[in-house]
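Final report, closing paragraph on structural work. Over the funding period we assembled a curated collection of sequence-structure pairs, and we close with a single example.
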Amino acid sequence: MKREAIDTVSPILEEYGAMTRAAMADYLPNWEPLDYLYKPMADYPLRGGKYMRPSLCIATAVAFGAPTARAVKAAVSIEMLHNALLIHDDIEDESAERRGQKTLHEIHGVPIALNAGDALAMMSLRPLLDSVKQVNPNLAMTMLRDMERMARESAEGQAIELGWRATPAVRPTRDDYLEMVLKKTCWLAAIFPCRIGAAFGVENRGRMAEDAFIRFGFYFGAAFQTHDDVLNLRGGLGYGKESCGDLWEGKRTLMLIEIADQLKGRDADRFDRFLHASREERREEDVAWLLHLMQESGAIDHAFEFSQSLAGAAIHEFEKMFETVPDGRDKTFIRDLITWTFRRER
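Its predicted structure, as stored:
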């Protein structure tokens, strides 16, 4: 009888996610103006999610020798900022759905959603400020500078992507895509959670290998994002945002970049018209045409294979980074989170 593999990821996502949710309640005010600020601000955090980012922060802290409670407030900061950026992303992408429900701006309108996102982003600093009271002042300043850099890198990555949409004639390369993903995705999804978590555990153990966290976080985050792009086309109705939403938005994924390099003549003209059109002007038949081209050319399969190679590089960097860290469930969780990326459905 074949033995089923032990799930080393889901239980910790649930455990650390529950810790983060409980602690986050203290940072989501329940006072006036409630209907026009604090209820909308709490909407996305209360919808839940995978809690991958805060779980990665807590697990890294524990793996490096800190108690779970020490990193929970930093994990709350990460989750709050993540949800704030989702509100802004949905407005900028004109998305209609988030986590199976209408996006915040579809419910409340852009002005209220934008203000709620701004407030959530600014207030995400409070849990980290409370958290760094536990460490020496020099390390506290390093952690705060790390958060500032992560926020700046994320904004720059978003700006690069928005710039491509604003100038449809630009043809980004795969290297351009990876630079954008490093900034927009990897810093918030992996680099910062790992660095901030490790800081709690290695405060008295010498200098952290900062570049190692950047390398690991880049490969893991890029694998996660590339596979997320694939899921958007393969995921169907079970995907966390609307299926094929990336095509409707004209996002420069690896699949779109590959297709752009292949098209000639009338197909190239049709593609250019599609990119120059607004989302409202794009037609369902054009989205279906692009999806068919990606399927027939193997572009989706190529992106999936590339995401797997990135995951392999992430595992290699993990082994080097955690070589001296004692084995345990948190270390195992971080390693297995890399391959969990390919088991998730959204």
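The longest strand covers residues 97-98. Strands lie at 97-98, 101-102. We thank the funder for supporting this effort.
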